[in-house]
Amino acid sequence: xxxxxxxxxxxxxxxxxxxxxxxxxxxxxxxxxxxxxxxxxxxxxxxxxxxxxxxxxxxxxxxxxxxxxxxxxxxxxxxxxxxxxxxxxxxxxxxxxxxxxxxxxxxxxxxxxxxxxxxxxxxxx
Length: 125
Known about the structure:
125 residues; mainly alpha
């Protein structure tokens, strides 16, 4: 198995794991990231995003090669769409996931572009 396939499977597995966390043991922590302007209940938003992450992760693992470039763009768009949650957590100083200082919350903001790049590079042509 080549490095790109290992990276693709790792990305899919990470998303599945995060999705399961949304629905179970980290549900309350994920609620801390939902911006107040989202027009849904925080718990509903967490559940829907968790389901989306599980579906996206499974799709990343199982999708045939000819569709992966499109899937990379979809995954990057998803990571972009949830980024306001990270900004909200920083701006509102909400503690979750051991992000209990401004410096840690700020550092988390720089992870999102890395996830976007991971999706595009791993799933791109």
